Amino acid sequence: MNKIWIIAKKELASFLYSPIGYVIGFITTGLVGYFFYIDTIYSGFAGMHFTISLLATLSLFTLPLMTMKLVSEEKKRGTIELLMTLPIKTSEIIIGKYFAVLLVFLMILAITFLHFLLILIIGNPEFLVNIGLYFGIILEGMALLSIGIFISTLTDSQVISGLVSIGVGLLLFVINLLSDKVSGIWANIFSEISFGKHLSGFFRGVIDLKDVGFFILITVLGILLSIVYLDNEKWRK
Amino acid sequence: MIKIESLVKYYNEFKALDNISFEINQGDIVGLLGPNGAGKTTTMRIITGYLSYDSGEVKIGDLDPQDKPLEVKKIIGYLPENPLLYDEMTVFEFLKFICELKNVKEVNKEIERVIEITKIGDKKNQIIGTLSKGYKQRVGLSSALISDPPILILDEPTSGLDPNQIIEIRDVIKKMRKSKTIILSTHILPEVEEVCNKVILIDKGTVKAIDSIEGIKNISQGRPSIIIKCDDNNKLKNVLSKIDYITEIEEKESEIEVFIKNESYKKELLETLVANKTGVYEFYSPKISLEDVFHRLTIKEGDNE
Q1: Which residues of B touch A (CB under 8 A)?
Q2: pTM to 2 decimals?
Q3: Is the pLDDT of residue A99 over 90?
Q4: Which terminus of chain B has a lower count of CB atoms within 10 Å, N or C?
Q5: A interface toward B at CB cutoff 8 Å?
């Protein structure tokens, strides 16, 4: 656990020193503020539905920007060799890096949470539904970050890592649209692996264990694949 | 301390290491010598556990880096060919990061200890990206020294440095003689002669020679000989022709090379020459440099192909 935190600290520091974290934070909170004003304050709806759905879409682009460098930059600079020759497990490297981006994501979310507190003060929102919405977006973020870190282990190019992650995220988000066009098992598969479908329950105020389980499964899978891939690279080089 | 037995490593179809075997004892400073692409870095990466191997046996102490990677990584300090550093960190932050990953208890004290050895105290708070190549190399060496590992693997520790820096890095390595087992790769031959007590010469993925520096020179030296310069070559030849332990006399422009049965006759020969008043003013065994050996051993193979 200790070493995971050492890696996470290093990654967090690199977010502090590089503009990317600030830019993503600024864009996210800025757009969220804008939509919050349009949807909630201006039209008087006491809830975060529209704002969170914007965040869910925005994350498809911002989270890959956060994960794209995690491993690919180490590969490009060769520092992965440094890490891999120090007494630290590959799993600790990956999980540490994952925690760092998750923490940045949660910090940005925390800023948007202020809007909800504002609604709580001036309006009468359905408290649990809105908390459920946040729960949903956190789960979606966890899965996207995990996919992003895995794709980042596959290449030493940050740009490719970022673009592919965005592409995969977008595809997974809307892949349920395909399920109407095909039949049989594929219809089920396309529907079941869709982020959009699993997220929709949270917007209806329903927290289904199946949806929660789906996002957790994707998260665990992404992290595991990253560890296995990186660990096995020593066989291929 | 380090034992490698019939090690084979492929990169896809390319056989990078072909049946390499050697053994390194505790306290040895071993020069891993070979032309570019010989397999030096691959061998080192396998020892550090960064790369796996296809067949053979690798033992660090009694640990296999493939089975017990963490344990092996704990006892090895590794300096890769181009020091791998986080450019955005300061020297201190970087070394602190390494200390933490190596489980060092007293971080500040350990950092002070290593930067004292590598003499980078004045750059402690400088951003690594702004340092010169020589200083970066020393930061890399410092990180390898952290936690005082008994084995050091140094991949071309002096490449790209200016002559003064080379001397400094060599001094650092020499200071660790006895206390550590060191493998350093290089193609700078005087470096090996200066720091190492053992040479492993590899070329095209195979071991060409393993020996002490003297031993490796003898390999290609063949028969012992002595070069003599004197005032009167005819008189000298006359004297030499009567000595029975001389096997051959070869006259060159201004000197004569005399081949003797073995090294122990040197003293007797000199005394004879002086007693016969041949006017000897130079009398020495021809020095075979590692360059010659290196060249001969690595080129010969190429000629055969």
Answers
A1: 11, 45, 48-52, 70, 73-74, 76, 78, 80, 82, 84-88, 93, 97-98, 100-103, 143
A2: 0.85
A3: yes
A4: C
A5: 3, 6, 10, 13-14, 17-18, 77-79, 81-82, 84-89, 234-235, 237
Does residue A46 have a pLDDT over 80? no
Q: Do the interacting molecules here have an ipTM over 0.85? A: yes
- A-chain residues near B51 (CB < 8 A): 234, 237
| Contact criterion met (CB < 8 Å) for A84 and B74 | no
Tell me the helices (H) and strands (E) count for chain A, helix number first.
Answer: 11, 0
Q: B225-230 and B280-284: which strand pairing?
A: antiparallel
Q: Whole-angstrom Cα distance, residue B8 to residue B2?
A: 16
Q: Are B28 and B181 in contact (CB under 8 A)?
A: yes
Using an 8 Å Cβ cutoff, are A130 and A116 in contact?
Answer: yes
- Count the Cβ atoms, other than its own, within 10 Å of residue A43: 9
How confident is the model over A148-160, as pLDDT tens digits? 999 999 999 999 9
Mean pLDDT estimate for chain B = 86
DSSP state of B90: B
Q: What share of chain B is helix, strand, coil (3-state, %, to 5)?
A: 40, 30, 30
- Per residue in B7-36, pLDDT (tens digit) is 999 888 888 899 999 999 988 899 998 888
Q: Which two tokens stand for residue B217?
A: 């020179």
Which of A82, A234, A237 faces B84 most closely, judged by CB atoms? A82
Q: Do A79 and B86 touch (CB under 8 A)?
A: yes
Q: What is the pLDDT of residue A171?
A: 93
Whole-angstrom CA distances from A131 to A56, A104, A113, A136, B58 are 15, 19, 10, 9, 56
Distance separating alpha carbons of residues B251 and B255, to the nearest angstrom: 6
Terminal CA-CA length for chain A: 29
Rounded to a whole number, what is the distance in Å from the CA of A234 to chain B's nearest CA? 4
Does the pLDDT value for residue B223 go beyond 80?
Answer: no
Beta carbons within 8 Å of A76's beta carbon, 6+ residues apart: A156, A157, A158
- Token pair 């200071």 in the structure block, residue: B175
Dist CA B73 CA A85 (whole Å): 6
Interface contact A78-B80, CB threshold 8 A: yes
Distance, in angstroms, between B145 CA and closest chain A CA? 12
Cβ distance of A82 and B49 shorter than 8 Å: no
Paired strand residues for B17: B9
The mean per-residue pLDDT over the stretch A211-225 comes to: 96
